[in-house]
Amino acid sequence: MAELKFPDGFLWGASTAAYQVEGGIENVDWAQAAREGKVPSAGQACDFYHRFESDFDVAVNLGMNAQRFSIEWARIEPEEGTFDEREVEHYRTVFAALKARRLTPMPNLWHFTLPLWFSKRGGFLHKDAPEVFARYCRFVIERLGNEADLWLTHNEPMVYSGKGYWDGAWPPFFKSPLKHIRVISAVAAAHRAAYTAMKTARPEIQVGIANIVVYVFVDWFWNHRFLRLIAGYQDFIGLNHYHHRKFGITKHEQESALRSDMGWELHPMSLYRCLIALKRYNLPLYVSEHGLADAADIHRPEFIQNAARALHRAIGEGAPVKGYFHWSLLDNYEWTEGFTKRFGLVEVDYATQERRIRKSAYVYKQLCERNALLDPAVNVGDSLFSDTTRSS
Ligand code: BGC
């Protein structure tokens, strides 16, 4: 049986985001939209705010050595310019819990939800938004910057702008091509300001963003535009990857493609292709999210093995991949889908908050513990990458 080995020190972890798991966050635009009946309510979610220690125990027992999570801006700065030191202390205990378990932290400062005061004044489209966002980021770094080396400012700016300003499906529910273009530039400006403020406060930290990369025909616009807007203002790139779309395929191919419970095609080689596409930036790469909704847990085991093959292949071809964070540790609040989609390595019973480890999590555990994939099907693995059809 072949063994695909990973470099020493490779990070294996899982990702979460505050609003999707913590529970009890009411002073953000998404909670307001839920009160208005526009999106499902996140309510207590997974109660991760109180249960993070036992959830990190699960992560460590699954062999992981890293965790990505997010800090909720509205907890730290509930009113404009007013910072809540108790919440800083809360997140300090989160870092301490990770450290005690030797889990390398990758904190993210903003994962889609905006403090109500910030969204009411126009969000990132307000002219002062870059300074205001940078002030928050700098505050966190001054207090907690010694707790982690790898910091993300933003999660998926292209999804945020697309869903909120083009589709009109997410707060602030605009359908405006003009605002869409403007908000992409505004979020990039906010990142640049935050990067400068964070690096001034602590030059030694590494700052990046989690960018979604999709194989689509609008490759430049969707995948690379934002990265160009922040060129020179990132020390690493986080890749979030879920989507593969192939054009020019038959109806039969379309119908027979393997899909997750979200209806997204599961395509074994698209992660590899995205990593190769990001090689040109000459920056360390982390897969900051990659996963699938699969309540029955039938596709996840192979999905994880295929991810490992893709990572290994990309590293072998010179992509500087340093870590992989599966989305997600827990089932969680999936935005407009509410709690109906199950992305977790760990199943959550929302009525009792009971956690149950899914079988696929043990496949991940073996990978994390060995820092290698025992590949029973190395030839099958190879053939996954020999598909020459154009995926776009
Ligand atoms: C987001 C997560 C989301 C996941 C699955 C990513 O785009 O960062 O918040 O839950 O995809 O849809």
Describe it.
The protein has a single domain (2-385), classed as Glycosidases (TIM Barrel), CATH 3.20.20.80. It is built from 15 helices and 12 strands. The model is unreliable at 387-392 (pLDDT under 50). Helix 7 (129-144) packs parallel to helix 9 (177-201), helix 12 packs parallel to helix 13 and helix 13 runs parallel beside helix 14. It has 392 residues and is of the alpha/beta class. The protein is globular. The strands form 3 sheets. The protein has an 8-stranded parallel β-sheet with strand order 4-3-2-9-8-7-6-5. The chain has a two-stranded antiparallel ribbon with strand order 1-12. The protein has a two-stranded antiparallel ribbon with strand order 10-11. The chain is 41% helix and 16% strand. Strand 10 and strand 11 (354-357) form a beta hairpin. Beta-D-glucopyranose is lined by residues 17, 20, 155-156, 159, 212, 240, 242, 289, 327, 334.
Q: What small molecules are bound in this structure?
A: beta-D-glucopyranose
Q: Quote the distance from N terminus to C terminus.
A: 33 Å
Question: How many domains make up the 3D coordinates?
Answer: 1
CATH top-level class: Alpha Beta
CATH superfamily, by name, is Glycosidases
Derived from helix and strand composition plus strand pairing, the structural class reads alpha/beta
Question: Roughly how many Å is the radius of gyration?
Answer: 20 Å
Number of strands: 12
Strand content is 15-25%
What would you say the CATH architecture is? Alpha-Beta Barrel
**Under CATH, the topology is which?**
TIM Barrel
**Main β-sheet description:** 8 strands, parallel
- Coarse shape: globular
Indicate the mean pLDDT: 94
Give me the side-by-side strand order of the main sheet.
4-3-2-9-8-7-6-5
Q: Helix-strand pattern, N to C?
A: EEHHHEHHEHHEHHEHEHHEHEEEHEH
Poorly predicted sequence stretches spanning 5 or more consecutive residues: 387-392
- Count of alpha/pi helices: 15
- Estimate percent helicity: 40-55%
